[in-house]
């Protein structure tokens, strides 16, 4: 487990960008954290590092937004609206095994669809400071352990 603290929106985007340089086709990133924690902000940085020029907007109502103009496709998902189930109808397996990187906000609502390996990042607000966030990285599987080791060096 690796932890890292950021103190600004830009620093959060930088963490996303560093990960954007390390992901491969089929990478799966799970983002946990309350509303306003910075999950979408992180994803914006990741998208930038992939070379995606479009504005990354929260997929709260669409559930999934696909961006295909970067180094590899980005599948950005926010499955908060599936808190009462229904994730089995989204065909998530095809995204997770696809040629892009999947970034999932609120992954706890599709837990039955999780692949064997993934990187889970939990973003915690630090009460004393509006702009401070603690990130906790929990890699599952060798590929993601390697990714986090490289990230720790890059940050
Ligand atoms: N260190 C930080 N990391 C991420 N976001 C931050 C940080 N400090 C302030 N913010 C602000 O908090 C909000 C996070 O919103 P968003 O990324 O949409 O969260 P979520 O997707 O988790 O609901 C943004 O308005 C962002 O500018
Ligand atoms: Mg969001």
Automatic annotation (TrEMBL):
Q: Which NCBIfam families match?
A: T6A_YjeE (TIGR00150)
Q: What is its main location?
A: cytoplasm
Family affiliation: Belongs to the TsaE family.
Q: Where is the signal peptide?
A: none
Q: Coiled-coil segments, which residues? A: none
Bilayer-crossing residues are: none
UniProt organism field: Loigolactobacillus zhaoyuanensis
User: What is the primary gene name for this protein?
Assistant: tsaE
Q: Where in the cell is it found?
A: Cytoplasm
User: Per the record, a Pfam family?
Assistant: TsaE
Q: Which UniProt keywords apply?
A: ATP-binding, Cytoplasm, Magnesium, Metal-binding, Nucleotide-binding, tRNA processing
User: Could you tell me the superkingdom of the organism this chain comes from?
Assistant: Bacteria
Q: What is this protein called?
A: tRNA threonylcarbamoyladenosine biosynthesis protein TsaE
